[in-house]
Design brief:
This protein is mainly alpha-helical. Helix content is about 80%, strand content about 0%. The chain has 6 helices and no strands. The longest helix is centred in the first third of the chain and has 18 residues, at about 5-20. The two termini are about 15 Å apart. The relative contact order is 0.14.
Length: about 120
């Protein structure tokens, strides 16, 4: 199993367990997250890019991976993603650099594994 498949399998497994607990607040948070990224005054592509930059600044590697895959699936180019990385690093400072490294590695995994 490659890194992309491993990340998605773990995320799916844990989301199922979390949602099976049937906690109203957690279910509403998950629903709010889904609805936030739906088409609206801003298109989905813009929202995913915003999510990616925010995730990098907040230094959430799982969130970065999630939004990177969404960006990849929505057709963003490597150049577009690197411009988003530059915004995240400017806003977040040098502490974001380790997350940038892991993000670039995951993007490369997406390119390698999604083209198979």
């Amino acid at each position: 199993m490659n890194k992309v498949e491993e990340f998605n399998a773990y995320r799916s497994k844990m989301n199922e367990k979390i949602l099976a607990a049937d906690n109203k607040v957690i279910k509403r948070i998950f629903n709010l997250d889904t609805n936030t990224y739906a088409e609206g005054a801003l298109d989905t592509k813009t929202k995913e890019l915003l999510g990616l930059v925010a995730s990098m600044v907040l230094r959430c590697d799982d969130c970065v991976k999630y939004h990177l895959e969404k960006c990849y699936d929505l057709g963003f180019t490597k150049e577009q993603v690197f411009e988003a990385f530059s915004v995240a690093n400017l806003v977040g400072g040098t502490i974001v650099v380790p997350h940038l490294r892991r993000a670039v590695e995951f993007w490369e995994d997406l390119e390698e594994n999604k083209n198979d």
